[in-house]
């Protein structure tokens, strides 16, 4: 739009902020109006001044109507002009006063403003703006030149954005729309205004344009994304731009698609992933905690959708393939049956139909099926692997990871993506890696990825699982239980990342280093230790023994704990574990320590000792450990640690008291971790006092396995009403309960 100055005796110049809108160039009127000497654009935009976008402010207002008679000319002369103070608000569509009286009784719509100019004339107040409206002029007088320029640029911006919103809301020719979007982006990049909405407004306009026009072709959509990319490319978005990504992508799928293709556009730049990395950094913000809770879920949603699209053609080929149940049953059949697993990943073709009828050809000859993006190769088996364990006759659908466990007839599979899909996959897996590097995002990211929300074709793709291994490693290294516990399955009967990356899992590409790291962090959290050991003994005993044989200290500890807790019932297996332990220096040393403890325990039970024991106040975990190791306490039935400084760490000593029936932990720092350990080993405990301890529902729920409890004091703990009801239902012998000063009271 052309902005035309008016002058009574001076020269007239054109002020042009941006290129014209859809209406084309508006010719400057030949006549001139009031005397005005407009400032040159170079003076405004090249002087280096920056301004904050005004939303409201105090200013003097004078309205001059165009004179039609001699009398009206006299009344509008500069000597008789009247100025009114107003507090004006720059709304989205008009200029309005907080006190709608006098000149500003009615708001001035941006669509009615024909021109905005800076004015100056002799013997007149300085720092004035002129708004040309139909039938007159509105004069705005600021207190100084800086405020005048700030009002000028703010009004120009509001007027322009209002027109762009209006024009782009009803597009007709997309090539013209594309030109106007580029102009809009240029205007935002060159504006002297520095404000959140300067970068936000173009994004909102374009996202609305995309959401309201769902019939765009792929090329048109890509052109729009490329057109708006320089806005964030040259001005990396500050944290306030996260508001754009904080909308619910589930309700606005076009916004997700917009973000997905925008990131791909950034990745195609010369700097590639460096630009994408800066984009992720800007989304997180400069502090250690991202202030926008919706940013991470939206970015993860974008990554999942993009990764899914890489395998979409593969996924669409499942239509005529066997069901998951058939795949599981096929994997369990003897080796003379053709493996059904690859059929889930191959496109149906006449060649495959003929190959299905011939088993020997399927074993001796590689089958390669190509599509426009993906190639799958089934290689002949060279080594046999253990068959999957599943209950025969179970009609429930098997989980996806079990379906991908290779059968004896099909040991390896390779998936190859086309160049474009490969670049897309690499970009978005790299983003998941970047997200896992942020400490504040890692708990939520682990929770979002815990259900393994990827197609099974991706889990069968070696490149994908190899790249994603970095993310799983970050989860395994995090000491927070809320993070590393997400390595386990989301529910019973379904495998998790722990199974996927353990030896024998489809994603395991090392000698068990990641598996050992995961076991170490999970055992260190004391999270259902005995149950976890039982699971390892049933499913991963072989890998544990192999790693222990190679000197892995974590696996040596695991085998010792299995022996100490009597996890292994079979004598031959116990002897094999002992042989494994004695084959290495570290294993031999730890096994000898285990034998010493077992001998001490038997000696303790043989000698007996006192039946009651009370520790002095302010005793510590170390004091308790020294006391219990100095004498015989096989007959100890009542132990009071009230008002001492013991913590959950003392639980490993308490579980070695076989006759303990009453335990008083009143006003100690004994917490959830210790309570879980007690619940697994002291199943004969009858009286437990947890008054004024820091235990929560997470630990108290574990007490449901202590069926012998008849007296339980949970006074002044963080017990909830739901947990209390659950304990009452699961502890049939519970007769005395104290829940005062809790939520359940």
Provide an overview of this structure.
The chain is an alpha/beta fold and 745 residues long. Among the domains are: 56-157, Pleckstrin-homology domain (PH domain)/Phosphotyrosine-binding domain (PTB) (PH-domain like, Roll); 172-315; 488-602, no CATH class; 607-738, Leucine-rich repeat, LRR (right-handed beta-alpha superhelix) (Alpha-Beta Horseshoe), CATH 3.80.10. Helix 9 runs parallel beside helix 16. The chain is elongated, with a radius of gyration of 37 Å.
Write the layout of secondary structure elements.
Blueprint (H helix, E strand, L loop, with lengths): L2 E2 L9 E2 L25 H5 L10 E10 L4 H6 L8 E7 L3 E4 L10 E2 L5 E5 L8 E6 L2 E6 L3 H24 L5 H17 L5 H17 L5 H17 L7 H4 L7 H15 L5 H12 L10 H16 L1 H5 L7 H9 L17 H7 L2 H6 L2 E4 L3 E6 L20 H5 L7 E6 L1 H18 L5 H8 L6 H4 L2 H16 L3 H4 L12 H4 L12 H12 L4 H11 L1 H9 L3 H12 L6 H12 L2 H23 L4 E3 L6 H10 L7 E3 L10 H4 L7 E3 L7 H10 L5 E3 L7 H4 L10 E3 L7 H10 L5 E3 L7
Main location: cytoplasm
Protein name: C-Maf-inducing protein
Keywords: Cytoplasm, Leucine-rich repeat, Nucleus, Repeat
């Amino acid at each position: 739009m052309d902005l035309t100055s008016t002058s009574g005796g001076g020269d007239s110049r054109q002020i042009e902020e941006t290129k014209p809108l859809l209406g084309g160039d508006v010719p400057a009127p030949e006549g001139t109006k009031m005397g005005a000497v407009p400032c040159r654009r170079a003076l405004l935009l090249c002087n280096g001044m920056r301004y904050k976008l005004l939303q409201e402010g105090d200013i003097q207002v004078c309205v001059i109507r165009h004179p039609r008679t001699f009398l009206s000319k006299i009344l509008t002369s500069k000597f008789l002009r009247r100025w009114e103070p107003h507090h004006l608000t720059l709304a989205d569509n008009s200029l309005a006063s907080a006190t709608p009286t006098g000149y500003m009784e009615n708001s001035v719509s941006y669509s009615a403003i024909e021109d905005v100019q800076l004015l100056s004339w002799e013997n007149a107040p300085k720092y004035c703006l002129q708004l040309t409206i139909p039938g007159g002029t509105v004069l705005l007088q600021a207190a100084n030149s800086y405020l005048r320029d700030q009002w000028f640029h703010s009004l120009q911006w509001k007027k322009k954005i209002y027109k762009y919103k209006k024009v782009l809301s009803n597009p007709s020719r997309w090539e013209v729309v594309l030109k106007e979007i580029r102009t809009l982006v240029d205007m935002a990049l060159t504006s002297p205004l520095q404000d959140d909405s300067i970068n936000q407004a173009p994004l909102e306009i374009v996202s609305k344009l995309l959401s309201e026009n769902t019939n765009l072709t792929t090329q048109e959509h890509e052109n729009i994304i490329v057109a708006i990319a320089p806005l964030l490319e040259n001005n990396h978005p500050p944290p306030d731009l996260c508001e754009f990504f904080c909308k619910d992508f589930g309700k606005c799928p076009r916004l997700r698609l917009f973000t997905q293709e925008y990131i791909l556009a950034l990745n195609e730049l010369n700097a590639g992933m460096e630009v994408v990395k800066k984009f992720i950094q800007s989304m997180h913000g400069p502090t250690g905690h991202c202030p926008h809770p919706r940013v991470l879920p939206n970015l993860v949603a974008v990554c999942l959708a993009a990764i899914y699209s890489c395998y979409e053609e593969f996924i669409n080929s499942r239509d005529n393939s066997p069901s998951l149940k058939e795949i599981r049953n096929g994997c369990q059949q003897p080796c003379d049956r053709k493996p059904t697993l690859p059929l889930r990943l191959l496109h149906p073709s006449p060649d495959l139909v003929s190959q299905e009828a011939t088993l020997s050809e399927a074993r001796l000859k590689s089958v390669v099926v190509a599509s426009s993006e993906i190639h799958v190769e089934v290689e002949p088996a060279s080594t046999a692997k253990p068959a999957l364990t599943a209950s025969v006759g179970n009609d429930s659908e098997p989980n996806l990871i079990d379906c991908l466990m290779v059968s004896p007839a099909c040991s390896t599979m390779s998936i190859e993506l086309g160049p474009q899909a490969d670049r897309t996959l690499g970009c978005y897996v790299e983003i998941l890696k970047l997200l896992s590097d942020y400490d504040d995002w890692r708990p939520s990211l682990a929770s979002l990825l815990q259900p393994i929300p990827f197609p099974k074709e991706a889990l069968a793709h070696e490149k994908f699982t190899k790249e994603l291994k970095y993310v799983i490693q970050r989860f395994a290294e995090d000491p927070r239980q809320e993070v590393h516990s997400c390595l386990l399955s989301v529910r019973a009967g379904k495998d998790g990342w722990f199974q996927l990356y353990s030896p024998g899992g489809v994603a395991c590409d090392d000698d068990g280093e990641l598996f050992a790291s995961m076991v170490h962090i999970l055992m260190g959290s004391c999270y259902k230790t005995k149950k976890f050991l039982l699971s390892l003994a049933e499913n991963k005993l072989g890998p544990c023994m192999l790693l222990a044989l190679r000197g892995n200290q974590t696996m040596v500890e695991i085998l010792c704990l299995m022996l100490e807790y009597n996890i292994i019932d079979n004598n031959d297996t116990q002897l094999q574990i002992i042989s494994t332990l004695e084959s290495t220096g570290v294993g031999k040393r730890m096994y000898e320590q285990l034998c010493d403890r077992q001998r001490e325990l038997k000696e303790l039970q043989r000698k007996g000792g006192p039946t009651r024991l009370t520790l002095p106040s302010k005793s510590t975990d170390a004091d308790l450990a020294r006391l219990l190791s100095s004498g015989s306490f096989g007959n100890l039935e009542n132990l009071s640690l009230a008002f001492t400084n013991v913590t959950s760490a003392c639980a490993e000593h308490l579980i070695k008291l076989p006759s303990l029936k009453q335990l008083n932990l009143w006003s100690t720092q004994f917490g959830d971790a210790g309570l879980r350990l007690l619940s697994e080993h002291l199943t004969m405990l009858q009286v437990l006092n947890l008054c004024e301890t820091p235990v929560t529902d997470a630990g108290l729920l574990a007490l449901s396995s202590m069926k012998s409890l008849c007296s339980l004091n949970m006074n002044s703990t963080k017990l909830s009403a739901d947990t209390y009801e659950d304990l009452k239902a699961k502890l049939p012998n519970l007769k005395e309960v104290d829940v005062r000063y809790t939520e359940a009271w």
